Amino acid sequence: MIPDVTPNGVFYLPPTGWLTSFYNPPENFGHTLAEFMPNGSSPVFEATTVSGIILSYNAFQTVINIGGEIKDPQKNIFRAITISLTIATVIYIMLQIAYIGTITPTQLATHGWSGLNFASPFADIAILLGIHWLAVLLYLDAFVSPFGTGVSFAATSGRTLAAMTLNRRIPKWLGEVDSTYGNPRFAYLANFAVGALLVLVFRDWALLASVMATATLIAYATGPVTVMAFRKLRPDYTRPVHSKMMPVIAPLTFVIAGLAIYWAMWPTTVQVIFAILLGLPMYMYYDRKNGQISWKRQLKSGGWLLVYLAFLSMMSYAGSKGFNGQDWIKYPYDFLIIIVVSLVFYYWGLASRMPDSPDLEAADKLNKNVRQSVRQHG
């Protein structure tokens, strides 16, 4: 039996070792690269977004979102992120070993790995092996386990939405905090409504996971450009968490985010991008209402992102067949094009940074508080 961890942090004795104890043919793992990846490397990336793997690893952001409530954030944020990613990696490796090790040669004889079709792989395998109690446990865990993730994400997403009111881009009432419990109840209700709408529209789990992962990745794509822009605009900021490798990490992260958005496959890519662009009217309305910087100046500074999203949409349509494209651009040349062009957009975004804005002034005030806090606590 191999100990494992569910996404909500509950330790239990999982199916991994139990299943592999029944059958573990070493030939399933392959002795050469061709045997290890019989269908090539493309399916590895195809499965990354649609299977929910990216969505699962996304839990690390919870640590950052509540970083202001963490003791000694300079050290503990890095530790928490490292631990969460390591645990997720170990879990997935164990699950893969269990899955590969329990498939019999008979099941692979006809169509190979691509011919396997399990709605619930581990539960179905447990039923085939006659371990019915384990199948029941797995189905039960599939229902209970997401509640832990749901609770943590409900807390962080609600606070994130409430904090956005400080930028005056959304209605102020979303930032109102309940005097009794100290929670932004209206932000929670708004997030619940959006979540319910997503479940109604995207009823298939694989599609919903792909949509959520893609939307998150588009948000992540702005992060590398933002952090390097801040370092150039405000090099004297007090930064409790500072990485000297950021000039290398930032462009690399931006490229990986672009590739991962592409992995979501056509037409999910363009659907998510279109849904995000639907928020532009609200953004423009509140800019006009609050007398913010002219649209022309904002378009000049942020136009690179709109063009980049259009580029990814076109690549998704024209890309290789494995990613639901028209196969006009074969694999791996589609990857190479995205890598090179993404670097161009990264440096374009960095060069078009806005030297002054109300948001930057707000960041200056916030950093003064950070500087004072660092001085007080050493």
Question: Outline of this structure?
Answer:
This is APC family permease. The protein has 378 residues and is mostly helical.
| Average residue pLDDT | 80
| Tally of separate helices | 18
Rg, Å, rounded: 23 Å
Question: How large a portion of the residues is in β-strands, by DSSP E?
Answer: under 5%
Specify the structural class.
mainly alpha
Task: Measure the end-to-end span.
Answer: 46 Å
Q: Sheet with the most strands?
A: 2 strands, antiparallel
Spatial order of the strands in the main sheet? 1-2
The total beta strand count reads 2
Return residue spans where pLDDT drops below 50 for at least 5 consecutive residues: 1-13
What count of domains describes the coordinates?
Answer: 3
The rough form would be described as globular
Fraction in helix: 55-70%
Secondary-structure element series:
EEHHHHHHHHHHHHHHHHHH
Question: What does this 3D model show about the protein?
Answer:
- With 378 residues, the protein is an all-alpha fold.
- It has three domains: 1-144, no CATH class; 150-201, no CATH class; 205-378, no CATH class.
- The chain has 18 helices and two strands.
- Strands 1-2 form a two-stranded antiparallel sheet.
- Helix 8 (121-128) runs antiparallel to helix 9 and helix 12 packs antiparallel against helix 13.
- It is globular, with a radius of gyration of 23 Å.
- The two termini are 46 Å apart.
- It comes from Ligilactobacillus animalis.
- It holds the Pfam family AA_permease_2.
- It is found in: Membrane.
- GO terms for molecular function: transmembrane transporter activity.
- Keywords: Membrane, Transmembrane, Transmembrane helix.
